[in-house]
Prior knowledge:
heterodimer; A: alpha+beta; Uridine Diphospho-n-acetylenolpyruvylglucosamine Reductase, domain 3; Vanillyl-alcohol Oxidase, Chain A, domain 3; eight-stranded antiparallel beta sheet; five-stranded antiparallel beta sheet; 13 helices; B: seven-stranded parallel beta sheet; 44% helix; globular; FAD binding (chain A); FAD-bd_PCMH (chain A)
Amino acid sequence: MSDALLAGWGRTSPSRARVLRPGSVAELAAAVQAAGGRGVIARGLGRSYGDPAQNGGGVVVDLTRLRKFELTGERIVAEGGASLGELIRALVPRGRFLPVVPGTRHVTVGGAVAADVHGKNHPADGSFAAHVEEFDLLTADGSVRTVRPGDQAFHATTGGMGLTGVVTRAVLRPIPIPSPLLRVETRRCRDLDDVLTRLSGSTARYAVAWLDCLSERGRGIVDEATHTEGPAATAALKGPLLSVPPHIPGGLLNRHTATLFNHLWYCKAPRTSVRSMPLGAYFHPLDRIRDWNRIYGPPGFVQYQFAVPYGEGLKNVVRRIGRSGVPSFLAVLKRLGPAGEGLLSFPIEGWTLALDFPATAPGLPELLDACDQAVIDAGGRVYLAKDARLAPESLPVMYPGLARFREIRAQLDPAGVFQSDLARRLRL
Amino acid sequence: MNNAFRDPQSLLIVGGTSDIALATARLLVRRRARRVVLAARPSEALTRAADGLRGLGAAVETVAFEATAVGDHEKTFGEVFAEGDIDVVLVACGVLGTNALDPVKAAEIASVTYVGAMSATLACANALREQGHGTLVVLSSVAAERPRRANFVYASAKAGLDSFAQGLSDVLHGSGVQVLVVRPGFVHTKMTKGLPPAPFASTPDAVAVAIHAGLRSQAGTIWVPGVLRLVMAVLRRLPRAIFRRLPG
Lengths: 428, 248
């Protein structure tokens, strides 16, 4: 047990908490029951960008010691603290892969359930929860219950940001893959319409676009990928290439460097190409740079990810950001399929765009508030796993399932034992 | 909770009728502040201040606070924090007083501006430490850096408070609680009404904007206007024989 200053991946609003690292579910249950007035929240690998895995003045249970997993036939049974990267490493040599992987593999199973993460294949395969057969939920009274799709607790917990309890074990269904390789088709698109047409027409299982929101027309690069045959010996995952040193000053990433970087990224991409790529290189390019979040320096950064139904909403927000002059690095655009059943799950059918901004960029807070309004007007929402600055009033408008979520949470945790900085900030 | 941009959702003002503090509150309420607690001696001015902030949409509470009743501070602020987290505490209690060489008056100035403010700041610092996050904004003055004849008693009290706040900032390092020391020059407020303005005079709104920017950038010390940082760096080093001859 120790006190620590914890922040999210964006490093913006740290708070101090008592951190416990239980080595068993019994220890975890004891920690939850002894949490005290400021409550407890589970933390995995700390990849949420904002404040959902911190609990100022309270207890944070670090789940990374509960990381055992086994592959049994067509299922994976994993403890809540097992990382998706470890699962992938074990699955790939057996010709299997996770059905949904987010933009980093350094995410725990519990975190993936709590944020109901999605990947570049949401239209085809849905979000993480769609592939969870059941999970064990440790609730506020210290008891563990097994929860399945259709249960109230299931749909409140998937996307519920850890506020219904701790996911101690989950059963997942992997997918078969022919090899650790992907056939990746890359194409440069000169403007936003071109990008959207390309993504909309894509028949590949995975598709993503990198947008340059600082360019006048919103040019971008579209990467489509499908699993393909290849030599089985190829390493699917490589370790980090570089590591970012700890003491980078703030302010290096500004409008000028962002424009230059985005330009180089665009120009380095082939006009059009088809090649084979290991899984890791396609799904998790940023995992090759250890601690990449440090490049923003001590002030940190904010990732703004929103989803809007098809229509003009996306362009409205992109235009607003482009006009503002606030520097944004490569933005990631994906399509989302129909929403799942998670009450606070992020994906809704339409577009989702994620942008990184230096936290101290002038005008950024006001810009993002204006973007919230444009997103609300379009019937969309922002992603809680990324959020660090939403106004609490916006939350019920963005998430109509919030009222139902609160009812179920009140039943599961009447005393409000599960608390986080995010929950306090958004009055969840 | 403070968000990523350090826009607080809840604000406690110690010395709740201060013009600078209220200008800051108005600005923060326009951003994210929804709960504002004004701690001050009950008065009509306090009621008006609370109503003004309610008009902007904030939920405002008033708490009776007497700077010199240091024995009550822990209890008073303990109750405020028990109602919910406070993200920013703005300590703005002070008396400028007159410049008469009256020992009793001087002691009064010091007991509000230094002793009372220090005790209130400590009571709040402990509560903030318990909640694991938050920012203490301590209103100091450029006078803390070098007293002028016109305000030396007040200046000495602010010097004490400024020094205390710097030390506290170091003590709180790593606790999740940050300290922002604000050193305005001459500000046109009810406290300075009728006094001849010094050079680089500013307004409560200008100080509020600077405090907001200081919160955002997580600064440790700010001067308002910013140029005073340089001006004071020079003035501090002037030989006393020369400094004494400066106007004011």
